[in-house]
Amino acid sequence: MVKNRKLSRAISDLGWRKFRTFLDGIAEKYGRDFRVISRP
């Protein structure tokens, strides 16, 4: 991916954030609960 580990992780986190936002919108559209569980 990228040689810089911190940059690589930031890019990955951004992708997950976008995916989470997408799921939140879908859940809201269909009247479902969307919960985010924190990492241990």
Overview of the structural elements:
The chain has 40 residues and is an all-alpha fold. The protein has one domain (1-40). It has one helix at residues 5-29. It is elongated and about 40 Å long. The mean pLDDT is 85.
Helix content: 55-70%
Which residues sit in consecutive blocks of at least 5 with pLDDT less than 50?
A: none
Binned strand content: under 5%
Which series of helices and strands comes N to C? H
Give the overall shape. Answer: elongated
Averaged pLDDT: 85
Number of domains: 1
Instruction: Find the structural class using helix and strand composition.
Output: mainly alpha
User: Helix count, per DSSP?
Assistant: 1
Give the quaternary arrangement of the chains: single chain
Number of strands: 0
Terminal Cα span: 26 Å
The biggest beta sheet is recorded as:
none
Characterize this entry briefly.
The chain has one helix at 5-29. With 40 residues, the chain is an all-alpha fold. The protein has one domain.
Topology at a glance:
Blueprint (H helix, E strand, L loop, with lengths): L4 H25 L11
What are the key terms here?
single chain, 40 residues, mainly alpha, 1 helix, 62% helix, 0% strand
